[in-house]
Structures are given as structure tokens and as C-alpha cells.
């Protein structure tokens, strides 16, 4: 009995809140050291001292775990599903509408601004955010359209939305701060549509004077 207890103590951690916290801690270290692309769930499990099945028990996948490490209250899978579920002819507009809807609540906006600020001063944070947005968010959205070169298209769309975040919430450019959600959707939506779907550029509403 003592031998079995000793073996159990040296073995993998059982389930529970401590286990979940250990997984998040190990994931945060791994993402920072290796970046998003090179981090694996199996490696995170090994670092946390848990069975890989427990990682899948607590988190839907690497993207959801990454979002947890950043303390961003958004499930990437649900976000992408919401965006890609509608008509592809309005995909660009729907992206802007969805993201603005997530960013506007102050508690979420603060987390977003903190994330963007850290990526501007830390190469590790920038690499994690870049790989995550490029592969798991905008890359998947672009791939859903069936268009050629989805990674480039996704990167172009991501650059547009990151620029909006920086200008509206971090630098606080007056015209963008004062713009309504509807104005931003109608102005930026066609640009994203062109990046992700269209072959010919379309012009949005010119509200900045």
C-alpha cells in the first residue's frame, strides 16, 4: 500500500481546480518560450504533470487554452463559428460587427488593450498574438471561404482589425473614438471583404473628415 501511495504521489496530478491552474501555468510558460505554433497540448500536459486527457477535459483545444492564458473571456471556436455561419457575401461586415461587439464592454476592452500593449513591448507576446490570430482566427476565417492563399488573406484582415484596436482603444484617434459601431462596420467591412473574398476592392462609407 505504501509503495502504491508513493508511486501515485510521484505520478501524474489528479483532476481538480489545482490541476486546471497547473495546466494554465504550464501553458503560459510554454507559449512564452516556444510561441503558439510550436507549443503542443501533449507538451503542456507533460510540463504540468498531468495526463494529456485532462487538458482536453478542461479545454476544447489549444486555441481555447491560449485564450485562457491571456485572460480573454472569448472562446475562439465560438467566435469563428459565429462569423462563418452566415452568408459569405457579408463576411467582412460580420467580422467587424462581431469583434466590436466583443470589445466594447469595458471589462473586455481593458483585457484587449492590455494584450495589445504587451505585444507592442514584448517580442514573446507579439509572437504569440501574431501566430494565434494568423492561424487560429483569421486564417481559419479566410480558409472557410475557399479562396486561394487563405494565410495571406487572413493576415491582411488581421492587420486591419489590429490597426483598428490600436487606433481606437490604445492611441485613441478622436475620429475613430467618436465613430459609432455602425459607421465602423460600414467603413471597414468592405475592406475585410476584399481581403478575404472579393477580387475587386469595394469602397466603404467615408465618415472621417
Brief synopsis:
The chain is mostly helical and 209 residues long.
Describe the structure.
It is a single chain. By secondary structure, this protein is an all-alpha fold. It contains 12 helices and no strands. α3 crosses α4, α6 runs parallel beside α9 and α7 packs across α12. The chain is globular. The termini are far apart.
Structural class: mainly alpha
| H-E order | HHHHHHHHHHHH
Largest sheet: none
Quick one: how many beta strands? 0
How far apart are the first and last residues' alpha carbons, in Å? 78 Å
> Rounded to an integer, what's the Rg over CA atoms?
20 Å
Q: What is the overall shape? A: globular
Low-confidence stretches: 1-11, 201-209
Per DSSP, what share of the residues sits in E-state strands of 2 or more residues?
under 5%
Helix count, per DSSP? 12
Please give the share of residues in helix: over 70%
What's the overall average pLDDT, rounded?
A: 82
Keywords:
209 residues; mainly alpha
Blueprint of the fold:
Elements: H1 2-10, H2 17-38, H3 41-48, H4 52-58, H5 62-69, H6 76-84, H7 91-103, H8 106-121, H9 123-143, H10 150-170, H11 174-178, H12 181-196
Helix pairs in contact: 2-3, 2-5, 2-9, 3-4, 6-7, 6-9, 7-12, 8-9, 8-10, 9-10, 10-12
